[in-house]
Structure formats: C-alpha cells, structure tokens
Amino acid sequence: MRLVRCRSISSYLKTALRYINHIMSAPLVYLIVNEQQVGPYAIDQLKSMWSSGSITADTLYWHEGMDNWEVVHLLLGSAVQSASQPPPIPAAAVQPKILQAKYDANSDSFMATMPLMIKLAMKAIQGLGWKLDNVNEGIGLVTFDTGMSWGSWSGVSCSLNIEEVAENFFRITGAGKQNLRGGQIAAFDMGEAKGRAQKAINKMKELAS
Fold first, then answer.
1. Which numeric CATH code is attached to 102-208?
2. Domain residue extents for the chain
3. 85 — phi, psi (to 5°)?
4. CB 3.0-4.6 Å disulfide test: which of 57, 83, 150, 205 passes with 63?
5. pTM surpassing 0.70?
6. Of 152, 134, 154, residue with least CA distance to 143
7. pLDDT of 76-121, one tens digit each?
C-alpha cells in the first residue's frame, strides 16, 4: 500500500513539475488591438481570447526574435520564445492609407475618402465634357450642368450626393432637372435629366474600377 502511495505521489509531483515548467516557459506575446499595443499575454490567454472572439485571425502579434508583426493565427499552436519589449507598432496597422478610390461592383460602393470621392466626381464630369457648378466636400455634394438636351436647349442641371455608409465606404445617388433659361417656356423630361446624373455615376465607377 505504501509503495502504491509513493508511486502516486511521485507521479503527481512529476505532473506538477511539468505544469510549472510549462507556466515558467510560456511565451509572452504582445498584440495590436483597436490600434493599441496590449500585453504581454501567454499562449493559453491568447487561446481564450481567440475562443471568446476578443481577437481574430488577422490580429497582429509580436514576440522576441521577430523582425515584424505577424497575424496571430500563424502563432497559435506553434512554439515561440518568451518576449521582451517589441518594436514600434507598424504604421499600416494603425491606419491604412487609401491613395485612390476603388469601386466594388458586388457591394455597389466605393472604398475611398471624401476628398478622393470629390476628385473622382469632378474628373468624371469633366471627362464627359460637362461644366462643374458647385462642389461641397463637407456635405458630399457636387452639382454640374450639361449641354443642350432633347428636352431643353438650356441643358440639364444635376447633383451627385456622396454618402459615407461605413468608414471609408461610399455610395452615390444622383438627381437632375431640365433647365428653363433664355426665354424658354417649357422643358420636357422623360427621364433624361436623371439619366445624365446616372451617366456621371457610371463614369465614376468606370474610372475607379
């Protein structure tokens, strides 16, 4: 009986020592969460954060011996060394810079900034040979006049409304009306005015594709 107990105690101590060694050698990892450096964390903590949804596959991590930050899904399940102080957070992880507007046909939206959207609208209108009337970046509004149309020799006045539906994602709507100028009594519009606005939007999509 004593021999069995000694063996049980010995087995328990070996298990406890393995656990202690695991804790002592557990890597310390730094993360970038909400554009802020946080940590350090042990691997077991990262796994819990992964399970709870606190971090995702593209969350960035760093540990001692690494030259750059990497996505955390490459780390989980692999052995790393314990960490010291990490290098500065890469600028791209803090705020990716959008250099030009891009159109996504699947979502029918543009990935851009408001200044880029305004420039794109101006380029599209001028590319169609129409005249810019007014540009208001603050509210995302661009107005313009076209040349003579079937419904009016004074042309069409159109407006483009640029709306940010999510951060750096935009959608555009347009409106138009036939002009009455120079003594013209009536103008006839069978969808032509709105069609001119839509043509400008289509041109923007073409330029950003």
1. 3.30.310.80
2. 2-94, 102-208
3. -80, 130
4. 83
5. no
6. 134
7. 754 433 334 556 666 555 556 778 999 998 889 999 999 999 999 9
